Amino acid sequence: MELDPRTLEGYRRRLRYKVCYHVGGFCPDVEDLVQETMTRFLEALRDNKIRNPERMGAFLSGTCNHVIAEYRRQIWRDAAAELPAQNAAVAPEAASLEMSDEIAVALAQMSDRDCRLLRAFYRQEKDKDEICRAEGLHEGQLRVILFRAKERFRKIYQGMKQRAS
Predict the structure, then answer these.
(1) Domain tally, the chain
(2) How far apart are CA 109 and CA 22, in angstroms?
(3) DSSP state of 29
């Protein structure tokens, strides 16, 4: 299936708006995220991987969501990797171990399922499809459960930090 340049430019404009909304208009990587989304979309279109061609917009939106999620995970990992270097008074190994202990304490206060899912998704970097198969969930369910688990973890972890200071 071929798309005319006018349609592609319309998709690109809508994607740019969506990416700016989700990552912020001042993010220096907006154009890169739009380009990555368009590349994946055009590859899927070329390889006939779009099951419902009449729902191309929905496919493109879902692809954009995945690209944004990958971008956020990468930023999160990069920030976590830089965290020990910011505190020069503490040896990097000690800061890392202390943070690991704090994370373990926070995870111990959560349900087993939430811990498994957070570890699989963030620590082991498993694919969503793989986690869904292992847990017997649909992708929509996993997305909601992960969102809520992250919020619970954040509240517990921030509460621990506030009590410590």
Answers:
(1) 2
(2) 30
(3) T
CB atoms within 10 A of CB 158: 11
**Cα–Cα nearest to 122, from 62, 70, 63, 65:** 70
Check whether residue 8 and residue 70 sit in a common domain.
yes
The angle that helices 139-164 and 128-135 make with each other, rounded to 10 degrees, is: 100
- Helices 30-46, 5-23: axis angle to 10 degrees equals 140
Q: Are 117 and 142 in contact (CB under 8 A)?
A: yes
Pair 80, 151 in one domain:
no
Residue-wise pLDDT tens digits, 11-58: 999 999 999 999 888 888 999 999 999 999 999 999 988 888 889 999
Torsion of the alpha carbons at 51, 57, 59 and 61, rounded to the nearest 10: 180
Choosing from 55, 86, 117, the residue where a domain stops is 86
What pTM value is reported for the model?
0.50
First-residue to last-residue Cα distance in the chain:
60
Rg (CA), the chain: 20
Side chain identity at 112, as an amino acid letter? Answer: D
Tokens of 108: 């111990």
